[in-house]
Design a protein that fits this description.
With about 220 residues, this protein is of the alpha+beta class. The chain contains 7 helices and 11 strands. The strands form 3 sheets. It has a 4-stranded antiparallel β-sheet. The chain is elongated.
Length: about 220
């Protein structure tokens, strides 16, 4: 894979021998949509840079309810798939491909060898992990302090930006997984938003009709 420095900021600080070593161990993998590619008890895969597609990092309650912690979009790096590199941090999370996703993977064992000799690599790992904590904390804040209609409105707003469209291809069940709710509650809330003229519901899609009122639903 070319231009690793665009994904891994420590690349420019590696010695020639370290660059050669990581180049030998780098590999590209492609995951189909919905593929579960990491779970905490399943070992330590490595650090993954998302070339195309997106990954969803999420957790599951004892009752089986899912909540998305954050997404890793194209151009970003997923560190939690190599959580074994951070001895003092323990993450009980799962990672799946939101769509067909290509990643550039540095196996944990290879990165660990370089990390032991180059502290800037270790700094990269911890810096990336701590930056993701802000997204995790935002998710927790939504769960604790936002009403369900605010959480759904926030999700629809963010998803509209991500899909670059006011017509969103998404199921009610998928929204429930994203925000840590259940499908029945999501459907009831969306029906209310439809009655208020904020959205129009269709089979497998949701159209945002009034962005202004959607924004007010977030802020109320």
């Amino acid at each position: 894979m070319e231009n690793q420095a665009s994904f891994f900021s420590f690349w420019k600080d590696l010695t020639p021998s370290q660059v050669a070593f990581l180049d030998q161990n780098l590999r590209t993998e492609v995951f189909p949509q919905g593929k579960l590619i990491h779970r905490s008890e399943g070992g330590c895969r490595g650090v993954m840079a998302v070339v195309s597609g997106a990954l969803r990092v999420y957790c599951v309650s004892e009752e089986g309810r899912e909540v998305t912690l954050y997404r890793v979009e194209a151009g970003d790096v997923c560190i939690l798939s190599a959580s074994c590199l951070m001895d003092s941090l323990v993450f009980d999370v799962l990672i799946e491909a939101v769509e067909e996703t290509e990643v550039c993977l540095i196996p944990s064992a290879a990165l660990h060898k370089v990390e032991q000799k180059n502290p800037l690599v270790e700094l990269f790992v911890y810096k990336n992990a701590t930056e993701k904590f802000s997204e995790v904390l935002w998710t927790i804040q939504q769960l604790l302090f936002m009403k369900i209609d605010q959480r759904i409105a926030t999700f629809l707003h963010d998803e509209s930006l991500r899909q670059k469209s006011t017509v969103l291809s998404i199921k009610h069940e998928d929204i429930a997984k994203e925000i840590g709710s259940v499908r029945e509650v999501v459907s009831k809330t969306l029906k209310y938003l439809e009655e208020e003229g904020v959205v129009r519901l269709g089979r497998g899609k949701i159209e945002i009709l009034d962005k202004g009122r959607l924004g007010k639903a977030i802020q109320k």
